[in-house]
Design goal:
mainly alpha, 143 residues, single chain, 7 helices, three-stranded antiparallel β-sheet
Amino acid sequence: MANKSLIINSDLELKYKVQALLLCIASEQTADLTKKIKPFNLSLTQLQILHNLSFAPEGKLTVNQIKSLMIDESPNVSRSLNKLMENGHIVKERNFDDQRVVHISITKSGRKVHIDADKAMIGSDLDLTEKELEQLYKLLVKI
């Protein structure tokens, strides 16, 4: 856990304190979520891929579509897809008309692990009231 008091008690300008605290909080949240999904043998990138595939309108997406739906630009999408395939969570199918295009679809085990991992992550509590959450959300959207 980051020592946020170093930032809070520093002589930095307020705008720099805010940026530094946002970085610390992002890092802490990432570490917490990563720990929560570790029992499912998934990375956050892999979970995000499964999430996107679970809600794909046609039940499948191309690799480029998956990349465009990622929250973070990740250079590990192809590696993550291979790992998901090794674990039986996705299936890859080549397009008959254009062999360069690969369609990815989620399997039954992929849907299950996605749901189970999401449930494990939902336990993350920010310890804020509903009003505070609304205020924070509005401020984060503004940034």
